[in-house]
Amino acid sequence: MKRSHNDHVGFIAPAVAAPEMQVWEALNLALDEAMAIDDAVFILGEDVGIYGGSYRVTQGLYARYGEWRVRDMPISEGSFTGLGVGAALVGGRPVVEIMTVNFALLALDAIINMAAKLRYMSGGQFRVPLVVRMPGGVAHQLAAQHSQRLEHTLMNVPGLRIVAPGTPQDSYWQLRQAIFHDDPVIVLEHELLYFDKGAFDHAAEAPPLHAAAVRRQGKDVTLIAWHRMVQVSLAAAEKLAGDGVEAEVIDLRSLRPIDLPALQASLARTHCAVVVEEDCRFAGAGAEIVAALTESSFFDLDAPVRRVAGADVPTPYNRELEQASIPDTDAVCNAVHALLGRPQGNS
Amino acid sequence: MQRDLARQFLYDMRLARRFEQAAAEQYAQGNIAGFLHLYPGEEAVAVGSLRAADVGDYVVSTYREHVHALVRGIPATEVMAELFGRSGGCSGGYGGSMHLFDRERRFLGGYAIVGETFPVAAGVAYWLRMNGSSDVALCYFGDGAVNQGTFHESLNMAALWKLPVLFICENNHYQIGTEIHRHSAVPEVYQRACAYGIDSKRVDGMDVMAVYEEARDALQHIRAGNGPYLLECETYRYRGHSMADAGAYRSALEVAELRARDPLDTFAEKARQSGWLSAAESDAIDEEVERVIAEAVRFAEQSPPPSELGRDVYVQPLDLYRGDA
């Protein structure tokens, strides 16, 4: 699809009505519009400029906004993320692209020790309107050092917000909201979703940054997921429907904070839930969700909330083993059947 | 040499020395806790360089930053109250000794992870250059920081884009207890700048005038659009790394030799000989310093503690299970 960059200042109407869009295009549009309306927005990252971004997300922006606002970085994740923090302290709205979450491990000092803490440590004097975008997840045989998920590491850090958009619409909405947010926001993207197509309504009003979304309604079980696991859960739900089980699928969209009321509302109808996460099971994001639901919705539950999660192994290179290390549709269906096959509650 | 400047230097350095003495006393009395890193011996570095800077310049400092904060104009009352952990402190009692901040005075903190000041200052300078500002980011660091990756990464970026940063090395020759010859293959810190094509110089960091003049020239060089500059100030800390360090790794003779070059005594003598300052004026400075320190301690003692645990974690209160309040 084509779109014009000439007259999109303000969000009144799309230059070209685009009923569908790919995730990378939606992210690109969000960046483009933010940069057009606010000179404080600028991009830092490896190969974001002349190359156009590893996943095309910054394509065309270097030509439009110049090298100072779309800066190709040397391979120095720790320092260029810290550079973003410094600029954010004095008025900038930097958007840092880290090529993959795996490389973000080199930038954790800037993210955790600096971005997340400077407002608090300064007694509220400073804002840190920094966005750090990074894709993660198991893709196509990238092996252990290029297949990680980092949700668990960042979810435990006061001062950060974490969003995980999985659709073109959410990618556009949440990145735009993150850029104009005055807190540091981590935008977790997924390597396999950049070229997914989905419905896109440019004029639609964005829900709150942290709000969860019901992707499929059902009365028998709630599947809670984000990123690519939403697709796996939706596919599982189709299969389960064939067995007479109606699964509700919730896309969490945000991991810090989480939209607990949305989950509680679903549980009040279905009385049982499965968290589907791509990351390793032990001490993962799912553990927090299960704990929160157990604490808040215990008497709505007919059975313990289950987790279907990644295996607790470094991701193997071999394709079959790699796929065996993350949840698939069958694993989700099996978990649901096991859950519903248990004796139901006393009521 | 202007008499006003001489008076300022002497006032700043004596206030710095007395403030740190008072902090040590208050630490011993239990009014200050945590890590406390004191500056005696190094006063000429902060005073000389910060007096050469403009009010529009930004300051990014380390965890040994009480004196930088004072010279930058943060009242001694607010610095002492911060050390006490009180609400009247310059970070509201939330930061402590290692995390002094003052937005209005462009004092961007106290960073307590060695090597963090480099990228923060580079980021400030990136923003300044991007917006055509003539302000400069002053980046302080110790000799121990030059072996962190951020030193090399940030110098590279600052040089690549000609960022207005003055890198100021406070080389006190010790990374806690490891002497520079044992931690650095190239112990002449200023020589390392050539790896990135950055102009640099080493100056006697015990001589406040020398530091002032070199910093002034370096800032002119930077403001003229020549990119970053690295100024290595050779200095010495009389006390241990922190209050927890008795300094057993160096000899009493070494400390005594360096104390003989004390920046306060040296400059006071020079000022007397040059006729910049009368004995009466010198005494008046001492009296003023005593008054300021006494007031700072009194203010800190009387300042109430902060009470809100969850304040300012986010810009707006945030419920982690329900979102924005």
Describe the structure.
The complex is a heterodimer of chains A (about 350) and B (about 325). Chain A has helices at about 25-35, 60-65, 75-90, 100-105, 110-115, 120, 150-155, 170-180, 230-240, 260-270, 285-295, 320-325, 330-340, and strands at about 20, 40-45, 70, 95, 130-135, 160-165, 185-190, 195-200, 215, 220-225, 245-250, 255, 275-280, 305-310. By secondary structure, chain A is an alpha/beta fold. Chain A folds into 2 domains: about 20-200, Rossmann fold (3-Layer(aba) Sandwich); about 215-340, Rossmann fold, CATH 3.40.50. In chain A, the strands form 3 sheets. Chain A has a 7-stranded mixed beta sheet with strand order 3-2-4-5-7-6-12, with helices on both faces. A 5-stranded mixed beta sheet of chain A has the order 9-11-10-13-14, with helices on both faces. Chain A has a two-stranded antiparallel ribbon with strand order 1-8. Chain A is globular, with a radius of gyration of 20 Å. Chain B has a single domain, classed as 3-Layer(aba) Sandwich (Rossmann fold), CATH 3.40.50.970. Chain B is globular. Chain B has helices at about 5-30, 45-50, 65-70, 75-85, 115-130, 150-160, 180-185, 190, 210-225, 250-260, 265-275, 280-300, and strands spanning about 60, 105-110, 135-140, 165-170, 175, 180, 200-205, 230-235, 320, 325. Chain B has a 6-stranded parallel beta sheet with strand order 2-1-3-4-8-7, with helices on both faces. In chain B, strands 5-6 form a two-stranded antiparallel sheet. In chain B, strands 9-10 form a two-stranded antiparallel ribbon. The termini of chain B are far apart. Chain B is of the alpha/beta class and about 325 residues long. At the A-B interface, α3, α5 and α6 of A face α5, α6, β9 and β10 of B.
**Tally of individual helices of chain B:** 12
Question: How far is it from the N-terminal to the C-terminal residue of chain B, by CA?
Answer: 58 Å
Q: Classify the oligomer.
A: heterodimer
Task: List how many beta strands of chain B DSSP finds.
Answer: 10
Please state how the strands of the largest beta sheet of chain A are arranged side by side: 3-2-4-5-7-6-12
